[in-house]
Amino acid sequence: MGSPRARRGPPPGVGRRPSQRRLARDGRRPSRRLWRLLTLPQGQAASSSATGRTSRPVTEDEPVHNDSLLTIGAFATRARLSPKALRLYDRLGLLTPAYVDAATGYRWYRTEQVDRARLVALLRQIDMPLERIAYVVELPGPQAARALTMYWAEVEERRAVQGAVVAHLRDRLSGRRQTVYEIRTMDMAERAVLTERRRLLVDELPHWLPAALGRLERAAEECGGVAGPPYVRYHAEVGPDSDGPAEACVPVPDARAAQLWIDEHRTGAVLRVEPAGRLAYTRLTKAQVAYPQIGSAFDAVERWATRHGLTVAGPCREVYFADWDAATATDEVCDVAFPVA
Predict the structure, then answer these.
(1) What is the pLDDT confidence band of residue 178, given thresholds at 50, 70 and 90?
(2) Helical residues (DSSP H) of the chain, grouped into ranges
(3) How far is CA 250 from CA 141, 216, 273, in A?
């Protein structure tokens, strides 16, 4: 029978609860015996033939490391992150440890992972979604920089839109109308338009409208071309609870050719002839088009028509005369208009 001292350690391959005694914290290279423990197969304990004792397992928070492999505690210090953040990044697949002990679950990292850890933390500081971070960190440097530029452009555009919403709500709640809209009029000649009409709520509009206008513009190109800016008519309010309907419209130069195309393809598009008339309108930037503040522009045009003794003669509309995707939040892209008589 071995000595009582030898019986304290578990047999090889069996883990034990680590003691609270900590190893050296000064970052020096671990001892030869401890390094043998770190490089053994997962879960295997090292034993001493001289004493019969089993080496103590190293806990994952201990600052033991060599030139390449670090415990989570040492790695957290090096990356200036908390172990809690590293465990989260591991769980989300953003930063996977180089080695995980199957018996204890302890995580080990390599020194070359420090830059990735810091990059993930910095991207989180600008509120980049985790799934987008997972995409960016896998890209080569120049591509990652372009992806970051695209993300920040989206953030700035969203902030511009949100700022316009806040301004609209502030004015509405305080009873003030600080936004000044310049109202103009234009005469419209009779024209033929290809249209698609649908009932939908406001959160469906950003998806349906570009797709519908794209279909109509492709159809127009096959029967003479596009004869004017595309627009959408609202036969009733499209909001969180009101479903319109909305009507996407693309002017075409040849009504007969358009009708022949409709009869042949039967896509659901309809040909409509819009009579000549007069429009009262105001011009908006891309940020001002967002719901609900765009409603204040419709209200301003309608009030202007009433003050000038004009009658609204048809559904209100938004006319898109600029490239929406290429425009910034401050570029003018849309006319909000009413037919008047």
Answers:
(1) low
(2) 4-7, 32-38, 72-79, 83-91, 114-125, 130-136, 141-174, 205-221, 255-265, 294-307
(3) 43, 6, 11
Q: Percent of the chain at pLDDT above 70?
A: 80
What structural domains does the chain harbor? Answer: 19-136 (1.10.1660.10), 183-340 (3.20.80.10)
pLDDT in tens, 29-41: 444 444 444 444 4
Query: Residue 101 carries which side chain, given as an amino acid letter?
Result: D
Of 187, 188, 194, 186, nearest to 273 by C-alpha is 194
- Name the residue among 251, 189, 195 with its Cα closest to residue 226: 251
Give yes or no for residue 330 having a pLDDT over 60.
yes
Q: What is the mean pLDDT of residues 126-147?
A: 92
What does 212-273 look like in DSSP terms, one character per residue?
HHHHHHHHHHTTT---S--EEEESS-BSSS-B--EEEEEEES-HHHHHHHHHHH--S-EEEE
C-alpha pair distances (Å), 219 with each of 211, 223, 227, 251, 282: 12, 7, 12, 11, 29
